[in-house]
Design brief:
Among the domains are: about 175-280, no CATH class; about 470-655, Immunoglobulin-like, CATH 2.60.40. About 0% of the residues lie in helices and about 35% in strands. The protein has a five-stranded antiparallel beta sheet with strand order 41-40-47-48-49. The protein has a four-stranded antiparallel beta sheet with strand order 1-32-31-30, with no helix packed on it. Strands 2-3-4-7 form a four-stranded antiparallel beta sheet, with no helix packed on it. Pfam families: FG-GAP (PF01839), Lysyl_oxidase (PF01186). InterPro entries: FG-GAP, Int_alpha_beta-p, Integrin_alpha_N, LOX-like_protein, Lysyl_oxidase. One of its GO terms (cellular component) is extracellular space.
């Protein structure tokens, strides 16, 4: 076994997300071995877990994780990144090491505050990821910590508490970076560092013991630009690791081979001079060979939670028609944000299992023999299709397949669960081990995903009109009550989302705004209608104000309490229809394209109605959008959704 393994925190190949995933609330009981017959079954209860440090108030623990034998004792250790939850903070982030202790890891880690060795006044821990590798051939896995403001290599050693004391190598340059990975691009058995600073790619070959230092830059005659870099494995079988580079706009990907001595093609800057292939796509994940030709398969998609599997073809290239497609559940948006091969988790003898991440849910697939169009998930974490009361939040999953950790014959999963960047403040996050096992007989129905189907849309960008609606199903399946305490100087107080500091009782829900018209829903810009916008000090940009209205009404139709969410920023977030318009990221005007939705997930700030002073009982929950006619609409569909709900203490139930 290599002392270092690929990390799970590689840059997202999809669009920027705005929610967060969850594996269910932590359970205080003992891990469940399944049914009483002594069998081992999949369960929502983790076999092992470690929580975030409450003292790291701004941190999102577990956003990136890695495994490797850092202290050289023969057991893999767990490396956990805790970058800042919000991007405007100056928190440099923290990195923790948990020693391997059979069968899992110690729950007492050693933690270091990152020093990025960067003089930029904005330096913080944004985009922080961790990975492990071996840069000098010794018995210790080394650690690469990468972020927006640097990339540093730390040597493994017996004393874990000393690992992050001083870096062995700092990628030079300063200023703003993007990301970096370990990859043996020249096939010499040592991991090199491939860094993206700004948009420029640099390759630093491992040269242990060399007079010039442990890494040597490979000069380029012409610059190579990318939005991010990821390891792809040795796709062409030449012994050198290959890379996936994204386009600077995130709408395409290229497979760039490594370059070793004797490679048939020309090299440039430590990599092949030409990509092996390029594909236009909003997302990309490579998957181990399924059809026996030795070439990895390719998951691509148009973004917004739609994923398509294309198999490699014998003559080279990939099939134009997908073998399998799936569309995500808008309750758990951004389906396909990660796709990870995980071995044989359910013990059926087939090692083609994979998990698909989304905001708030991890879906488990177990193909019996290859992947077909009829494939559905057989399990998920959490298992329910609705949010539970007291919901943990829409955490994003970072998954590593460690194999069978506890020797029960089923491969397990190590998963970091943390909010994605920019929407939810800390402290937050945890790392869990999800045990493998047989799929339980109940529930008998598969985790919900909508069918891959069109909506009968007619796109007419020139003469058509938008038609907005509120998704009542998403509203009903995301209702929960949360008690939360607010400081007097919190943003929620400053923005009027709650009337007073202290503990408040909140009715939370997701609002999914659909555009099912024939043209994009375009909001006038600030220069055209400054009266529509309000500056948000906490987020550092203008927000569209009063675009949606939230209210509870009594049996007589009287409004008894209303929501106070002020800030909206409309984007293409979830692809609602398979005949939707292409994804559009507009820099001058907010918009929702035809067939897309913008979703304000239930756990983001101010996405609630404060019910602290409300008497328990039955009410009508009403959510309306664009009732000031900011957007010119066809007005075929209603701009509101109304649900009858029963509120009792810390629970809410939808009633007829």
């Amino acid at each position: 076994m290599e002392p270092g393994e690929p990390d799970s925190g590689t840059p997202d190949a999809g669009q920027p997300d705005g929610g967060a995933p969850d594996a269910g609330a932590p359970d205080a009981g003992e891990p469940d071995a399944g049914a009483g017959d002594g069998g081992t079954f999949l369960s929502e209860v983790p076999l092992w877990q470690v929580e975030h440090d409450p003292a790291h108030a701004t941190g999102c623990f577990g956003r990136s994780i890695a495994l490797g034998d850092v202290n050289g004792d023969g057991q893999r250790d767990l490396v956990v990144a805790a970058p800042p939850c919000l991007s405007l903070t100056r928190d440099p982030g923290r990195v923790s090491l948990f020693a391997g202790e059979a069968p899992y890891f110690s729950t007492q880690g050693v933690t270091a505050v990152m020093d990025w060795r960067n003089a930029n006044s904005r330096t913080n821990g944004n985009r922080m990821t961790v990975s492990t590798g071996n840069v000098d051939g010794d018995d210790f896995a080394d650690v690469l910590v990468s972020g927006q403001y640097g990339a540093l290599v730390f040597k493994g050693q017996a004393d874990l508490a000393s690992v992050f004391t001083e870096p062995a190598f700092v990628v030079p340059g300063g200023g703003v970076y993007n990301n970096a990975v370990f990859a043996d691009v020249n096939g010499d058995g040592l991991d090199d560092v491939v860094s993206v600073r700004g948009l420029a790619v640099s390759v630093f070959l491992a040269t242990p013991g060399a007079p010039g230092g442990p890494f040597t830059l490979v000069e380029r005659a012409e610059p190579l630009y990318t939005g991010s870099v990821r390891r792809a494995g040795d796709v062409d079988g030449d012994g050198a690791q290959d890379l996936v580079l994204s386009s600077s706009m995130g709408d395409g990907y290229s497979l760039v081979p490594g370059c070793k001595s004797g490679s048939p093609g020309p090299c440039e800057g430590g990599l092949a001079a030409q990509p092996f292939w390029t594909v236009g796509s909003q997302s990309l994940s490579l998957f181990p060979d399924l059809n026996g030709d030795g070439v990895p398969e390719r998951f691509t998609g148009p973004g917004g939670g739609t994923v398509r599997l294309h198999l490699s073809e014998a003559g080279g290239g990939y099939a134009s028609a997908p073998t399998w497609s799936a569309m995500g559940d808008p309750v758990f948006a951004n389906f396909g944000s990660s796709i990870t091969s995980v071995g044989d988790v359910d013990g059926d003898g087939q090692r083609q299992d994979f998990v698909v991440g989304s905001d708030g849910r991890l879906y488990f697939y177990s193909p019996a023999e290859g992947v077909s169009s009829a494939l559905n998930p057989v399990w998920s974490w959490p298992r329910a299709d609705v949010l539970p009361q007291g919901y943990e939040g829409f955490n994003r999953f970072a998954v590593i397949p460690p194999g069978d950790l506890n020797g029960d014959g089923f491969d397990d999963l190590v998963a970091g669960l943390a909010p994605p960047t920019g929407l939810v403040g800390g402290p937050a996050g945890r790392v869990v081990i999800l045990g493998g096992g047989q799929v339980p007989a109940e529930p008998a129905t598969a985790p919900y995903l909508p069918p891959v189907a069109g909506c009968g849309l007619t796109l007419d960008p020139e003469h058509g009109k938008a038609d907005l609606a509120v998704d009542a199903d998403v509203l009903a399946r995301t209702l929960y009550v949360e008690r939360r305490t607010f400081a007097a100087d919190s943003c929620e107080i400053l923005e009027g989302c709650v009337p007073a500091p202290g503990e408040r009782r909140l009715l939370r829900f997701s609002t999914s705004i659909q555009n099912l018209g024939s043209a994009a829903a375009v909001v006038p810009g600030w220069d055209e209608r400054p009266d529509l916008y309000i500056w948000d000090e906490c987020h550092g940009h203008d927000h569209l104000t009063n675009f949606a209205q939230y209210a509870l009404r009594d049996a007589q139709g009287n409004e008894v309490v209303e929501g106070r969410k002020q800030g909206f920023y409309l984007i293409d977030y979830q692809r609602q229809c398979d005949d939707a318009a292409p994804y559009l990221l507009s820099f001058d005007r907010m918009s929702i394209s035809v067939g897309w939705t913008d979703i304000y997930v239930a756990d983001i700030p101010c996405q609630w109605i404060d019910i602290t002073d409300l008497t328990d009982g039955t009410y009508s929950l009403r959510v309306g959008v664009d009732e000031q006619d900011i957007i010119e609409e066809a007005d075929v569909l209603p701009n509101e959704a109304i649900l009858n709900v029963r509120i009792q203490g810390d629970s809410v139930t939808v009633v007829p």
